[in-house]
Amino acid sequence: MAEIIDGKKISQDIKDEVRDEIKEQGISACLAVIIVGEDPASQVYVKNKKTACEYCGIRSLSYELPENTSEKDLTELIEKLNSDDTVDGILVQLPLPKHINEDNIIEAIDPGKDVDGFSRRSVGALSIGTDGFVSCTPAGVIELLKRSGVEIAGKECVIMGRSNIVGKPMAMLMLRENATVTVVHSKTRHIEEICKRADILIVAIGRPRMITEDYVKDGAVVIDVGIHRIDPEKNNGKKLCGDVDYEDVEPVASYITPVPGGVGPMTIAMLMKNVLKAAKDR
Predict the structure, then answer these.
(1) Spatial distance between the Cα atoms of 262 and 4, rounded to a whole number of angstroms
(2) What are the two backbone dihedrals, phi and then psi, of residue 70, each rounded to the nearest 5 degrees?
(3) Catalytic residue among 6, 88, 114, 116
(4) Which of 118, 140, 167, 239 is within CB 3.0–4.6 Å of 162 for a Cys-Cys bond?
(5) Is 49 considered catalytic here?
């Protein structure tokens, strides 16, 4: 039976550390959050970020723009925040409406305020191992592993998924921690066989409950990055699930993250840590 990695507790510990450092050192930190449109999931995320800022002692600015906001107007707002010395971090909530080019918007953010860690400069710094902002979800996975006492160095790690937000930066972070890394994706052959070799299996594929015990080696550490809304009437009252079939995998894993309460809370905690870093760098 696996030991459950408690993302709620670990994320709370990190937020407490951020709050204490801000208070003890008298640091002034400010995060500007921009949301375009009325996507319900995005609004929940933004609300949670505001709550975390308030808890940590970080001032937050909120810009809620209509769906029809032009790319030009959004870029001008970002440029205004770039030049505002009282703003340490800028976050544009994704996804954006289809008429706005997300890459252009990410690159419009001052790299010194790119607390999401999505810009080319941030990704480049990560790839060559220099100082910079790291994407919050992959950074959160590293904290989950380390604070749970999971040894990474020398272990075989398989990452399922190659997105720019999770899969690719996750691979670079695990390499930085001296793991041996394999990335599998939709075009990979013999995926089950490859996953079955993993000492640490990190799943971010966006397919509910795809990963069963057939993919997992006995005693493997399983990190589930996925989150999906499901019909509670058909799933014993559960409203959320991950990419991993938890009930099937938990008996064979040594450590496992639940959904909810695993990786999810870590993303916002690591965002708070990035805002603190931005304020200290400034």
Answers:
(1) 9
(2) -80, 160
(3) 116
(4) 167
(5) yes
- Number of neighbours of residue 5 by Cβ within 10 angstroms: 25
pTM value? 0.95
Q: Supply 249's token pair.
A: 């995998």
DSSP-based three-state secondary structure for 158: strand
Distance, CA of 156 to CA of 172 (rounded, Å): 14
Instruction: Walk me through the domains of the chain, giving residue ranges and CATH numbers.
Output: 3-134+266-281 (3.40.50.10860), 136-262 (3.40.50.720)
Are 241 and 228 within 8 A, CB to CB? Answer: yes
- pLDDT tens digits, residue range 89-148? 999 999 999 999 999 999 999 999 999 999 999 999 999 999 999 999 999 999 999 999
Catalytic-residue membership of 12: no
Pairing of strands 240-241, 228-229: antiparallel
Q: Which residue out of 49, 113, 217, 273 is catalytically annotated?
A: 49
